């Protein structure tokens, strides 16, 4: 499905298990934090967690704007 969406618009896969993302054919892959909390960590202080979330989202936005010719992990 990722490849079909990519025909219309770029897609970023925020993934907790990068090898699986590669296997399914995701082109732009941004590693996430952990399987139960891909964009967060409840053990962190709220300010730290917000900072980490923002970093992942900003990295994803950069990935969307980057021209690629093969699968890329950002």
Automatic annotation (TrEMBL):
Against InterPro entries, the record matches this protein to: Various_sel_PB
Superkingdom to which the source organism belongs: Bacteria
- Report if keyword Oxidoreductase is assigned: yes
Which keywords describe this protein according to UniProt? Oxidoreductase
GO terms, molecular function: oxidoreductase activity, acting on X-H and Y-H to form an X-Y bond, with a disulfide as acceptor
Q: What is this protein called?
A: Glycine reductase complex selenoprotein
Organism annotation: Photobacterium profundum 3TCK
